[in-house]
Amino acid sequence: MYNPSVGDGDSSAFRRVQQEQSYGSEFELVKEECIGQVQKRMGSRLRRLVERNKGVKLSDGKGLEGAGRLTQQRIDAMQTFYGLAIRRNQGNLEGMVKETKTISRHYTDPPDHSFCPDGADSWCKYKVDRACGTDTYKEIEKPFPPAVA
């Protein structure tokens, strides 16, 4: 057993080791999640959400997937941004919450960049342009309608 224990999202093995107290009751076990696994789970859950809601109409009369909605490409991008937000904010829960929440806001109309990370190394091209004085950012062609957002 290594401490901290790096998990893959399945906490049953860690829980079992904790309960057995194989290392004694005075030894505190610490579990850390693998960021890649957390990132992968987020994308998998969005894909599962789309799959489970095939044929379901939202308040605008359209489904969850399709142009301007949760496409596979958009889910891939959101999953990547999610992993970046976690990696950039290790040890900073407030920053992590702020950056992960901004991902969906980034796809709304109009896009909300107020919570995007600042600076030239931001994943948000709008914020990169502001930091570098460049003009490369392009608005998302088909942002999420309110029914999806």
Would you give an account of this structure?
Residues 2-124 form the Mutator-like transposase domain. The protein has 149 residues and is mainly alpha-helical. It has two domains: 1-33, no CATH class; 35-149, no CATH class. The protein has five helices and two strands. A two-stranded parallel sheet has the order 1-2. The radius of gyration is 19 Å and the shape is flat. The termini are far apart. The mean pLDDT is 84.
Features:
single chain; 149 residues; mainly alpha; 2 strands; 44% helix; 4% strand; Mutator_transp_dom
- General form: flat
Distance between the termini: 43 Å
Number of strands: 2
Number of helices: 5
Helix coverage percent: 40-55%
Radius of gyration: 19 Å
Order of helices and strands: EHEHHHH
Content of β-strand: under 5%
The major pleated sheet works out as: 2 strands, parallel
Number of domains: 2
Q: Which regions have little confidence, pLDDT < 50, spanning 5+ residues?
A: none
Structural classification: mainly alpha
Rounded mean pLDDT score: 84
Instruction: Record the strand order, biggest sheet.
Output: 1-2
Domain Mutator-like transposase: 2-124
Pfam family, one: Mutator
InterPro entries: Mutator_transp_dom
Could you write a compact summary of the structure shown?
The chain is mainly α and 149 residues long.
What is the strand and helix layout of this fold?
Elements: E1 5-7, H1 12-20, E2 31-33, H2 35-52, H3 72-88, H4 93-105, H5 125-132
Parallel strand pairs: 1-2
Helix pairs in contact: 2-3, 3-4
Domain Mutator-like transposase: 2-124
